[in-house]
Structure formats: C-alpha cells, structure tokens
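Input/output pair, single chain:
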Amino acid sequence: MEKIDARTHSPQTQYEIRKQVIRLRKQGIPNQVLAEGVGISVYHASRIWQSYWKGGNKAIQLRVRGRQEGEKRTLTAEQEAQVKRDLIDKTPPDQLKLPFALWTREAVKLLIKHRFRIGKKLLSGWRGARNKSRFSTFPLIRQSSIQTNT
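Output:
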C-alpha cells in the first residue's frame, strides 16, 4: 500500500488510523506488517503504540492543535480595535504627530508605542492589522531600478 503523509489526513481520519493501529497491535501483529497495511511508516506505528502503552486511550484522543484565540498577544482586543480604527479612519500619521506621511510598519509600531506605552516587538499584531484593515501601502522603488534618460 502506498504511504501517504498522515498530516494531510483530517483529524478524524488520523484518530481512526490510531485506533486501527492499537487494535492490530493488540492482536499481536508486528509494527512492520501493520504499518504496511494501514499505510503509515513503521516509526509512526511504533509512536502510536508507545503513546497508547504509556497513556491509554487518552494519549491517542483528538486534541485541539495550535494556539488558542488571543493567546500570547501583546495588545488586548480593545487596543487592536483602536489601532485598526486609527488606520481605517483615513487619519494620516502626521496628524497624530508621528514623523511619517503614510502608514508603514514603523509608523504603526510608533503609534502603538506612544498610545499604549508598549515597546516590545509587535510582529503578530502588525500582521493582523495589515490583513484586516484597508489602508494602502505603496511598493518601494529602489534607487538602482530607476532609469534616467540621458
């Protein structure tokens, strides 16, 4: 049977594969044979069995993966909403006494630093604001790419 990367399966399918591996191992079938039959690697079959052996059914249950909503954020939801309003309201940064003409990454960082007194790196907050708001950014033109007619 062709081996397919198990990460591409849905969580429910992954759980069914785990249950199948446990059932076959309890019947005495070795990892190499059952891995070939189920379509996973021998290493993965062994890891499933070891997890089950150490933790029982709880170890192979479906779990929520990744960070929870709002976890490890520098700004609160209200602060993020306030920054987004500032960006969307067509208020240029110079009216907020910032040394920028257009909203750039540095301008947003400085706005957050002044308004909320937060000086940490603000990468995740910036990505969220960039994706959810509708302000324009202009591509930078490199000096070397400008051609002059002489």
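The chain has two domains: 6-60, 77-132. Residues 132-145 have pLDDT under 50 and may be disordered.
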